[in-house]
Amino acid sequence: MKKVLHIVASPRGAGSRTLRIADALIKKIQKDIPGAEIDTLDVFAEKLPEMNITRVNGKYMLMSGQELSGEAVEAWEEIKAHINRFLAADIIVISTPMWNFGIPYKLKHYIDVIWQPGFMFKYTESGPVGLAAGRKVIVVSTRGGDYTPGTPAEAYDQITPYLKTVLGWAGITDLTFISGQPMDANTPEGREAKINEAITRAESINFA
Ligand SMILES: Cc1cc2nc3c(=O)[nH]c(=O)nc-3n(C[C@H](O)[C@H](O)[C@H](O)COP(=O)(O)O)c2cc1C
C-alpha cells in the first residue's frame, strides 16, 4: 500500500491558505490511490528532538565513518524514528508558507533532525550519494508576495532553491512545486483566485 507523509509547516490550522491547497492535493491522491495511507506530521505540534551537543556529536561520529557510541546511541533513537517515518513514505507532501523568504524554522528544525549521513545520503570515493531516491515530493507553498519564476522577485524565493538542494542531496529529484501567490499583496477576490488556481493545479496531478 502506498504511504504518504504530509509534513505540515503552517501553525494556522483551518486559517492556513497553504493547507487549503494541500487538502485538495491530499484528496486527489486518495482518489487516484484508493486506500493510500496518509501520515500527517505537524512540525509545530510535534516535539522534535533538539540538535544539542550530544546529538550533534553523534552526527560527527557518523560523518567520520564511526558507529554511534556512548550517550549518542540513546539520544539518536528519536532521530532514527523520524528518519524511518520519512523513509517509509512513497509520496511526501510538504506544506509550507514562506516565512522571511524561506521555510518556517520548525520545518528547518525537522530537516536538521532527519538529514543525516548514512540514512539520507552517504559519502563515497566518487562523491556523495543520495539514499532516499525514488520518492515523489510535492511542495505546496503560499507566499504573501509574488515570487513567480521568471519575474525579478524570483531571486528572493529561498524556499524553492533550498528544498531542491536538500532533497536532491538525498537523491529525491521527482519534485513538483505548487505555489499560491500573492496572498497578502492581493485583494480578497484576487487571493481566492490564486488559491483556486493552485488547487486546480494540484488536482491536475495524476498519481494513479
Ligand atoms: C513570520 C512570517 C513571515 C512571513 N514572511 C514572508 C516573506 O518573507 N515573504 C512573503 O511574501 N510573505 C511572508 N509572510 C506571509 C505568508 O507567507 C503568507 O501570509 C502565507 O500565505 C501564509 O500561509 P498560511 O496561511 O498557510 O499560514 C510571512 C508570514 C509570517 C507569519
What attributes characterize this protein structure?
alpha/beta, Rossmann fold, five-stranded parallel beta sheet, two-stranded antiparallel sheet, 7 strands, globular, binds flavin mononucleotide
Quick structural summary:
With 208 residues, this protein is an alpha/beta fold.
What would you say this structure looks like, in words?
The protein is of the alpha/beta class and 208 residues long. The chain has a single domain, classed as Rossmann fold, CATH 3.40.50.360. Helices cover 38% and strands 20% of the residues. The chain is built from 7 helices and 7 strands. A 5-stranded parallel beta sheet has the order 2-1-3-6-7, covered by helices on one side. The longest helix has 16 residues. It is globular and about 60 Å long. 32% of the residues are buried. The chain binds flavin mononucleotide.
**Assigned CATH class:** Alpha Beta
Give the name of the CATH architecture.
Answer: 3-Layer(aba) Sandwich
Low-confidence stretches: none
CATH fold field value: Rossmann fold
Radius of gyration: 18 Å
Beta-strand content bin: 15-25%
Ligands in the structure?
Answer: flavin mononucleotide
Terminal residue distance: 13 Å
